[in-house]
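Private note to self, pasted from the team thread so I don't lose it. Backbone tokens:
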């Protein structure tokens, strides 16, 4: 899957940074991820996400939300909650979540 950078967001907005350690391609992960991507895209106030994973299993996903209400709607989504529980039991060795308010944002793109 080709992913583009999220750009052009007008602050303030919020980020949820999910950093994880997990083995490559655990059973059921890809299907759950595809479902969750569809679900989060439907949350009013969801602005996009960026994600990367190292060959050693460290992954970082940054999701962008217009406001805390949108972020809370995602946090409380039933399928998301079930995936978090399943992930703790079966997929992840460890993870952390950091929530932040973006006050300033800028970028660069060649061409």
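Design output:
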């Amino acid at each position: 899957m080709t992913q583009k950078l999220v750009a052009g967001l007008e602050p303030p907005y919020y980020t949820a940074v999910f950093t994880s350690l997990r083995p490559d391609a655990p059973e059921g992960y890809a299907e759950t991820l595809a479902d969750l991507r569809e679900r989060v895209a439907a949350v009013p106030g969801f602005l996009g996400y960026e994600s990367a994973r190292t060959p050693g299993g460290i992954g970082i996903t940054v999701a962008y939300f217009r406001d805390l209400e949108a972020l809370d709607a995602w946090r409380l989504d039933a399928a998301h909650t079930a995936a978090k529980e399943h992930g703790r039991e079966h997929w992840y060795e460890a993870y952390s979540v950091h929530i932040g308010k973006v006050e300033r944002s800028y970028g660069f793109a060649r061409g």
